[in-house]
Amino acid sequence: MTTPQTNPEIALLNERLKKLEERNFDWAAWKRGTLLVLEKIFGKESIYVSELTRTDYEYSSWSLRDTSGSGDPVKASCRELLQICITDVTNRPDENAAASAKSREMTETTLRQFLDKESVDELTAIAAADSPEMEKEEQVAALLKKKLPKHQGAMLGKLLLTLLK
Prior knowledge:
Blueprint: H1 8-20, H2 27-42, H3 47-54, H4 61-65, H5 73-90, H6 95-114, H7 117-128, H8 133-147, H9 152-164
């Protein structure tokens, strides 16, 4: 599981945030680079990509004369957008955990096609036991030999096909 500190997508977004503060800021280059990063992370059809695409930097004389000290509203908007993107990436569900849960569910469904509930529960207990792997494998083999003397190959084939899809 990646943390916000080790997530490469968050690192890319943080790098784009830092570039906003550079002394020799180049809007066009920053926008192109940031759009590439957002497309990579969220896809071309992302709301974040379309939002930044619509954002434009005004080099009007009014904005250059503004001495109110309010800061650059375009940079502030971009900073806000990148912060939202970071929050989105940080709060995404762990895809590996979701895939693992789905794989487990598919495996249990396949097992239930060949074994009764009691046998599936027994297999689950063996898998969860705090004993050496070799011992667990022997227990599973014995259980399958007893419960499925003729259909072990069919079950193994179906399990493998289910897992490899």
